[in-house]
Amino acid sequence: MKLFQISFTTLVALFVGALPTQDLAAQESSPEKSIVRVNATLQDYSFLRPWEKGAPTPRRGLGAVLENNRVLVTSEMCVNSTYLELEHPSSGAQVPARIVGIDYEANLAVLEPTKEDSGVFEGLEPLTIDDSVVAGDSLEVWQIEDNGDGVTTDVEVLRVNVGRYFIPGSIFMLYQVKGSLQARVNSFTLPVVKDGKLVGMLLAYSSNEQTASVLPAPIIQSFLADLEDDNYEGFPNLGIGFSQTLDETLREFAGISEQDGGIFVRNIATGSSADNAGMEEGDIILSIDGKPIDARGNYDHPKYGKLSFSHLVRGGAKAGDKVSMDIIRDGEPKTLEVELIRKTAEDHLIDPYMFDRGPKYLIFGGLIFQELTLPYLESWGEDWPTRAPFKLVHANANPEPFEEEGREKLVFLSNVLKTPSTLGYEGVNSVVVDSVNGKSIKNIKDLADALGAPPEDGIHVIEFPDYPKVIYVDDRASKFVNQQLIQYGIGQLERLE
Asked: What is the pLDDT of residue 11?
């Protein structure tokens, strides 16, 4: 009998060669090989005192290493950042970083080092992205200990749905997962992995329920694909408010008693995709690109099951795409071709968010004017809808009348400093400005232009739609006060850009 000797090395090679590629990748991948620490210094703007900024605050998180020494993080990690830094998970090598692309609505950002040969990426391998996740899959959340060791936590995907990301009203697809996570120093942003491939970024975790929301791979892929041509357009939005049609009375009123499903268009944002396509309030949307929308606003996704119709716009399409919508209007069927666009924060009458730029304002003789933004209202605390000035809260909820007047932004007198030129007006605040010296005010630049051209008598006339209706301000005295305000610590009297 002839004996064969097989070396241990050969045996291992044969065994490894027999492993499926996916299993091999899973064995070779680990947190310390494909993620870096991200250190940020953030400094928020003040909206109640718009000439000031808050104290710098540190933030630490983790980023997923991509091809070409780029790093994927959430945009929340970088918001209002004054300094960003990448750090090797084990060696501690550091390098300043810059933002290559960022989308606050999708809560994603890509960073890259400002110089090469820093040692930050030495020995690290980029992650590929996998969009195959479905409910029931097991995933790993990756973290790094202080000593550089990798930590993995198993979580299970409970379901795929849509929900809020970082920005109020910003709705995208989510993986809902369950598992017990431990907080660590760099746990602000955490990559989520399946079989050694990146499938998402952790957004939020509830320690009580041991559930978490994960920003999923399909959204990441769309974001990265949009960045490739250096002309980032972002995710489109339809621009409607809608109501479910579960109530039989509403269905009868809308003339869809004989129809299955459909959602009721409650309002339409000016200049939005829906507005440009001719959609009207009271329309019933029955389907989008042939996909029926049920009475709850969901459609059947072939992979994930029931999903909100919003994913057909903010996930299943990109800016510039056209979608076909079957609607009912006044009881009659109709088809609309809708070209999807992205309406940015700056395109709104009242900015829904404002990052990496300060609030626009102008101080004149102690009168503090601003353009109204949602962050200004939110400065009044979590219960701002009841604490912030009522008329400004109402304007935020009902911008249409102001848009119909042709306003681009809503300029208001936010507060009055007690100075010689504002005597008697100290109690005036939170009132929208209609005109200055007879000129309609559509934005803060209009206000600056009007105050920069005083009438012959040197008295500015500032009018409001509500009390006090009109105030009179001396130009010469106000400009003298402006110089004093600069001397007393208000270093910048205006921000118009």
From this structure: 30
Residue 15: predicted pLDDT: 31
pLDDT band at 10 (very low <50, low <70, confident <90, very high): very low
Instruction: Answer whether 31-113 and 138-227 agree in fold.
Output: yes
- Name the one residue in this structure whose structure tokens are 């391998």: 125
CATH architecture of 240-339: Roll (2.30)
Q: Three-state SS string across the chain, please? A: CCCCCCCHHHHHHHHHHHCCHHHHHHHHCCHHHHEEEEEEEECCECCCCCCCECCCEEEEEEEEEEHHHEEEECHHHCCCEEEEEEECCCCCCEEEEEEEEEECCCCEEEEEECCCCCCCCCCCCCCCECCCCCCCCEEEEEEECCCCCEEEEEEEEEEEEEEECCCCCCEEEEEEEECCCCCCCCCCCEEEEECCEEEEEEEEEECCCCEEEEEEHHHHHHHHHHHCCCCCCCCCECCEEEECCCCHHHHHHHCCCCCCCCEEEEEECCCCHHHHCCCCCCCEEEEECCEECCCCCEEEECCCEEEECHHHHCCCCCCCCEEEEEEEECCEEEEEEEECECCCHHHCCCECCCCCCCCCEEEECCEEEEECEHHHHHCCCCCHHHHCCHHHHHHHHCCHHHHHCCCCCCEEEEEECCCHHHCCCCCCCCEECCEECCEECCCHHHHHHHHCCCCCCCEEEEECCCCCCEEEEEHHHHHHHHHHHHHCCCCCCEECC
Residue type for position 439:
K
CATH of domain 138-227: 2.40.10.10
Cβ atoms of 306 and 300 closer than 8 Å: yes
The CATH code for residues 346-495 is 3.20.190.20
Whether 473 shows a pLDDT value over 80: the answer reads yes
pLDDT of residue 490: 92
Q: Is CATH 2.40.10.120 what the domain over 31-113 is classified as, yes or no?
A: yes
Query: Which percentage of the chain shows pLDDT scores above 90?
Result: 84
Phi, psi of 311, deg, nearest 5: -70, -25
Q: What is the pLDDT of residues 30-86, one digit of tens each?
A: 899 999 999 999 999 999 999 999 999 999 999 999 999 999 999 999 999 999 999
Locate the domains of the chain by residue range: 31-113, 138-227, 240-339, 346-495
- 189 or 401, which is more confident: 401
Condensed to tens digits (0 to 9), the pLDDT of residues 268-290 reads 999 999 999 999 999 999 999 99
